[in-house]
């Protein structure tokens, strides 16, 4: 407050200057008062010559006597006029100009020496204006290199405008050549009033209640009122409730002599309802030691305030969308996180924490190495490295996590680089807990391995069985063959009675059946071992059919079966005669077996360009439709009891199928209620043989 008081006094001193003094003297005094109020060691004042428009240094304070001349010599006023220097800039723009450190000021070089001598380091150039026109310059120098405070600038602004007024008055005075004119108190008040009225910033005075005593034109412009509409009204009429409280509080303190924090920012309601903001500096007015009111200077900061407001709104919106993003992030069902360039967690959502089992404090800042198995860590580091180098990576990857409780879980991760400009500054990741899926996969793999193992065991057992069947069959075949041979010998010798002959015939028949059975078993074993050797040569199917029919004829006769052959002359084919006879006799034997006495069996054969087609049809018991395929399986028999009646172990058809397929042909059965038909198609292989 002491500083404020001295400045206020300085202002009134300037206003009350004796204008009867010499003009130069008046200017010097203004400069001196201003410098002293600011504790400035030196300063200068320039005025623009009204006729020539040239600036001229008219006063200096705290500087050597020849300073003005030396400035003239060094820089010349032409330089100032050309607006190269600081003062030139002020003349041009009409705004004050600050030089916080003259050594760093471009274009002021010639004056370094000049300033070093009187010892100043920073300066300000304040325009002296009449209306908008710059009529002079007030220059104040400080010892230290520093900026002038806002308050000092405020003071200088008013000082300059008072200087302008004083100069104006003094000029008028001298023009009237009435140098003995004495300034009366009344006139001095007029000066004040004019100063007050025409100041650029709004100014006003209030009584201790807060009623307007005065307000200047600038203040009225802001409020949009006439003087009559304001004078006498209470500040409550012009302030928002909140600002009113602030203003009343400040007024109360000032009236009771306490200090207040300046400036006070108030929201003003103008006459048209518009809201404007003012930055207010106030000081109390005393009269005879009594505080009788408050004097205020305002600065319109509406634009600044609006900008701040917009910024605030923008910031709030930003915060809102940030909050919305955070909410989405935190409550997403899938884990989400971000990593820094070191691979440490910067963010992680609740779902992520649930999977890892850690708290936010335990997780944020921790490195991924804490949460991954060594193998997954290796893959993750490689992936991060690629992403940081802008290289492509697979869309997703599965990591094995080690949770806080030591449990292992699996997560399918997709990541993207977070960029700032061209630089990757982090990684954002989305994860999906695939633990259950992974566990099922592992279980499935285990089952599969077990299955594979049992399959291999089975194959081995089957191989051993085949081996055994093959061995045992060979072992059986040799003695059987000799039994049959010696029985035939005995039979042929004919030295026995009829009963004995019958017994030998039974032995022979059963030997045949046993030998056929053993041979079938050997065939199956050979088939399984893929050792089913065929001797291919050109063969006639006509021969094969008639030999087969001949072979089974006695059996057919025994059952009084009518055997019909309907066979066209056929081309020779490439085949194994013995094996094809085996197929045909098998089919015809089956037909005889499953056909009641006096039935009919028809063997047909013809050929097309491509194939030879053979069929064996009977009028027997038939085969159910759903069993037509199964009968070609090994050991398959439709009816066990029937088979025991007819003999056989269900190998015949499977051997037939193998033989036909080895000839690149096909075999199948048809049966429609009554009787069965077995069909064979053998390729002619595209050429006559
Ligand atoms: P098996 O050597 O026991 O006769 P097959 O493999 O030759 O064995 O025949 C398998 C089964 O197919 C027979 O047990 C029988 O049930 C059925 N089958 C074969 N041929 C005929 C047919 N012509 N009529 C009815 N059923 C038949």
Question: Would you spell out the secondary-structure blueprint of this structure?
Answer:
Elements: H1 2-15, H2 23-37, E1 42-48, E2 55-61, H3 67-74, H4 76-81, H5 86-93, E3 97-99, H6 112-116, E4 122-130, E5 133-142, H7 150-176, H8 185-198, E6 203-207, E7 212-215, H9 217-223, H10 227-230, H11 241-255, E8 264-269, E9 275-287, E10 290-300, H12 302-331, E11 336-339, E12 345-348, H13 350-356, H14 360-363, H15 374-388, E13 397-402, E14 408-420, E15 423-433, H16 435-493, H17 498-528, E16 537-540, H18 541-558, E17 562-567, E18 572-575, H19 577-593, E19 600-607, E20 611-618, H20 640-646, H21 652-662, E21 666-670, E22 677-683
Parallel strand pairs: 17-19
Antiparallel strand pairs: 1-2, 1-5, 3-4, 4-5, 6-7, 6-10, 8-9, 9-10, 11-12, 11-15, 13-14, 14-15, 16-18, 19-20, 20-22, 21-22
What descriptive keywords fit this protein?
21 helices, Beta-Lactamase, binds adenosine-5'-diphosphate, 689 residues, alpha+beta
Give an overview in words.
Helix 17 packs across helix 21 (652-662). 47% of the residues lie in helices and 22% in strands. The longest helix is centred in the last third of the chain and has 59 residues, at 435-493. The protein folds into 5 domains: 2-161, GAF domain (Beta-Lactamase), CATH 3.30.450.40; 201-300, PAS domain (Beta-Lactamase), CATH 3.30.450; 338-424, PAS domain (Beta-Lactamase), CATH 3.30.450; 439-528, Orthogonal Bundle (Helix Hairpins), CATH 1.10.287; 537-683, Histidine kinase-like ATPase, C-terminal domain (Heat Shock Protein 90, 2-Layer Sandwich). It is α+β, with helices and mostly antiparallel strands and 689 residues long. The chain has a 5-stranded antiparallel sheet with strand order 2-1-5-4-3, with helices on both faces. The protein has a 5-stranded antiparallel sheet with strand order 7-6-10-9-8. Strands 12-11-15-14-13 form a 5-stranded antiparallel sheet. A hairpin with a 5-residue loop joins strand 11 (336-339) and strand 12. Bound molecules: adenosine-5'-diphosphate (ADP). Adenosine-5'-diphosphate is lined by residues 590-591, 594, 618, 620-621, 623, 631, 636-638, 643, 648-653, 676.
């Amino acid at each position: 407050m002491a500083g404020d008081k001295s400045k206020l006094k300085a202002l009134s001193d300037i206003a009350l200057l004796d204008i009867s003094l010499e003009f130069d003297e008046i200017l010097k005094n203004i400069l001196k008062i201003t410098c002293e109020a600011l504790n400035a060691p030196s300063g200068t004042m320039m005025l623009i010559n009204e006729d020539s428009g040239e600036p001229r240094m008219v006063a200096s304070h705290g500087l050597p006597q020849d300073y003005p001349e030396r400035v003239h010599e060094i820089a010349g006023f032409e330089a100032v006029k050309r607006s190269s220097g600081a003062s030139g800039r002020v003349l041009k723009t009409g705004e004050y100009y600050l030089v916080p450190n003259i050594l760093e000021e471009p274009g002021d070089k010639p004056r370094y020496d000049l300033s070093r001598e009187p010892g100043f380091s920073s300066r300000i150039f304040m325009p002296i204006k009449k209306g908008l026109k710059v009529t002079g310059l007030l220059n104040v120098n400080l010892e230290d290199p520093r900026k002038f405070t806002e308050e000092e600038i405020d003071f200088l602004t008013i000082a300059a405008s008072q200087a302008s007024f004083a100069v104006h008055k003094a000029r008028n005075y001298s023009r009237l050549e009435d140098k003995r004119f004495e300034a009366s108190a009344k006139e001095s008040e007029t000066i004040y009033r004019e100063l007050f009225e025409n100041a650029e910033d709004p100014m006003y005075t209030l009584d201790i209640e807060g009623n307007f005593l005065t307000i200047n034109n600038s203040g009225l412009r802001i409020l949009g009122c006439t003087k009559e509409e304001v004078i006498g009204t209470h500040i409550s009429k012009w302030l928002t409730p909140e600002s009113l409280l602030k203003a009343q509080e400040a007024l109360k303190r000032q009236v009771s002599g306490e200090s207040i924090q300046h400036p006070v920012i108030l929201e003003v309601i103008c006459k048209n309802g518009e809201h404007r903001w003012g930055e207010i500096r106030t000081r109390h007015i005393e009269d005879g030691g009594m505080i009788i009111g408050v004097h205020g200077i305002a600065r319109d900061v509406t634009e600044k305030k609006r900008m701040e407001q917009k910024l605030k709104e923008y910031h709030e919106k930003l915060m809102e969308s940030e909050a919305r993003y955070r909410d989405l992030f935190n409550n997403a069902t899938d884990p989400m996180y971000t990593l820094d360039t070191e691979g440490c967690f910067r963010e992680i959502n609740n779902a992520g924490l649930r999977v890892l089992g850690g708290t936010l404090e335990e997780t944020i800042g921790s490195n991924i190495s804490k949460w991954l198995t060594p193998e997954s860590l290796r893959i993750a580091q490689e992936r991060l490295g690629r992403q940081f180098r802008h290289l492509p990576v697979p869309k997703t990857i599965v990591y094995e996590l080690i949770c806080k409780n030591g449990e292992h879980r699996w997560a399918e991760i997709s990541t993207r680089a977070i960029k700032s400009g061209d630089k990757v500054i982090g990684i954002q990741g989305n994860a999906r807990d695939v633990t259950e899926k992974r566990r099922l996969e592992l279980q499935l793999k285990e089952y599969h391995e077990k299955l594979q193992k049992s399959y291999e065991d089975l194959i081995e057992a089957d191989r051993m069985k085949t081996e055994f069947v093959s061995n045992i069959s060979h072992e059986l075949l040799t003695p059987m063959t000799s039994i049959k041979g010696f029985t035939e010998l005995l039979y042929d010798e004919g030295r026995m009675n009829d009963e004995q002959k019958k017994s030998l015939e039974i032995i022979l028949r059963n030997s045949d059946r046993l030998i056929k059975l053993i041979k079938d078993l050997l065939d199956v074993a050979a088939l399984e071992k893929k050792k089913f050797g065929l001797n291919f040569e050109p063969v006639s199917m006509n021969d094969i059919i008639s030999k087969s029919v001949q072979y089974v004829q006695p059996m057919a006769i025994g059952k009084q079966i009518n055997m019909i052959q309907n066979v066209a002359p056929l081309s020779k084919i490439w085949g194994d005669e013995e094996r094809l006879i085996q197929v045909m006799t098998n089919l015809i034997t089956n037909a005889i077996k499953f056909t009641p006495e006096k039935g009919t069996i028809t063997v047909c054969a013809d050929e097309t360009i491509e194939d030879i087609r053979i069929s064996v049809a009977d009028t027997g018991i038939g085969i159910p439709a759903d069993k037509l395929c199964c009968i070609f399986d090994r050991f398959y028999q439709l009816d066990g009891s029937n088979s025991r009646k007819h003999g056989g172990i269900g190998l015949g058809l499977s051997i037939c199928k193998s033989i036909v397929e080895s000839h690149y042909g096909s075999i199948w059965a048809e049966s429609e209620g009554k009787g069965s038909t077995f069909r064979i198609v053998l390729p002619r292989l595209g050429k006559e043989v």
